[in-house]
Protein 1
Amino acid sequence: MSGRVLGVVGSGAGGVEDLLPGLIRPAMEAGWTVCVTLTPTAGRWLAETGTLAEIENATGLSVRIDPRSPGERSPHPPVDCYVVAPASANTIAKLALGLADNQALTQVNEAIGTLGLPIVVFPRINAAHARHPAWNNHLAALRAAGVHLVYGDDVWQLHEPRNSPSKELPWSAVLSTVNGAVAQK
Ligand SMILES: Cc1cc2nc3c(=O)[nH]c(=O)nc-3n(C[C@H](O)[C@H](O)[C@H](O)COP(=O)(O)O)c2cc1C
């Protein structure tokens, strides 16, 4: 294992099925060691398709979904940067409130409170999610904590539910935000 370590966190949102070619492989080619944690929903989706095993083969590290037992050691090295992509509306709301009821949230919430640890989040949401009365407060809370959001019409246009033209996630914007956030450290 060498180089800087990128903690990639995926949740149950569209495009998570492309995490390996979209983000993990490009990050590894750029010199990152990548360790992946998934929410239980994303973990189930990627296990069903065999993508989870492909990620473990590519990264050489187990994908974390469940919390470890108290007597177990973490299977991942300490990370230099976290990236949550894609982040569902549910995962964003929980991060903004500090809820940590799965392994992915546990890691990222602790990271949000860790001084000097950059965090990049790409909310993969639709127009209805953005009209929820709590949404703007969630974004404001994350921004105030120093989280780098990949968000806005230039990177991801919002569509009504079930009306999105199938569209690739803005993986290169996500990775360049990671590199920019680490350079600012
Ligand atoms: C096929 C499918 C696609 C979904 N896509 C999204 C999405 O792009 N964004 C989103 O916020 N929720 C999406 N959802 C809903 C989330 O999966 C759901 O809210 C889930 O509880 C999220 O859990 P997690 O944040 O712990 O991964 C989708 C659900 C399904 C079944």
Protein 2
Amino acid sequence: MKPKKLDSKGNIIVGTTAILIVVLLLISIFVITTLNYIQNSNIDSEANDNFKYIIDDYSTNLEVLGRDAIAEATQKVYNGLPVRDSPDQIKKNLNKILISKNEEFRQKYDIDLSSEVISVEPTDSPWKVLFKVKLNGKKDMDEFSQIVERNASIEGLRDPLPVAKLTIASGIMAYDDKIHYKTALSAYMLLHDFDSPESYIEATAPMTIKKCPYDPYIHHGDPGVLRDCLDTGYFHESADGSCYLCRLEGKGKCPHYGMEVFIQTHTPLGNESLSCSDHVVFADHYNGAKIDPSDWDSLILDSSHRKKYGLVGNESY
Ligand SMILES: [Zn+2]
Ligand SMILES: [Zn+2]
């Protein structure tokens, strides 16, 4: 009798454990399913595949349209008008552009779309701007509401900073894919009492944003590299330089990760003057000296920028 009793007790324990495990499994499955459901709840499951294709198509378009919206803000700056809140300006531009895109999608997919740009933000790359757009769709009885996120590239757009900072009235000009400062920069330096403003008469800088391929930048000290960098007019990543969104507002410096470009002087003068990285000229204001004093086109650089670009000696590029 005793062993039998033990047996039945054992059976009860095994049975209870088994039931507990099954219950736990069911709870786990329920929790996982619920979490998945919450994640996907903004897409109606029946229409999921159909909407997914449309949302993907819309997202791909957003890369180009976001960039168009930025370019419109840049054009405003080049037209001589100030952009005081660039994310807001770009939001407005994009909302307008998306109205016609939504209409295009209505004809293409027979779907009612409405959209609202939620944010335009800098990213941890100075070459990209992040767009977030809330997209609502309705087709027959199915509906969805989703936030679409895409990065737009600013490479190939014009640098708005020189014009936004100095204004068109300063006499600054843009042609041959270059910013021609004429006397605008020297007048600005004279006004702020910086050293040797005459060094920056007729200074030039690249206009179209191109990312410098000579990375790490210390390679600018290698033979021929700096010359090619200046001839092509490349821009460089810089924690001290301003991001594209802040450039539109005429800020030479900002809290975001940004970029810098060399402002090239063309002068026989060998005086100390502002170091030629644009964030130094427009915001940080410290001096540098010509890398090669005998070269009219030599960059005026301070020691930390010389180190960053590997230009420590008396290089003539
Ligand atoms: Zn470069
Ligand atoms: Zn910024």
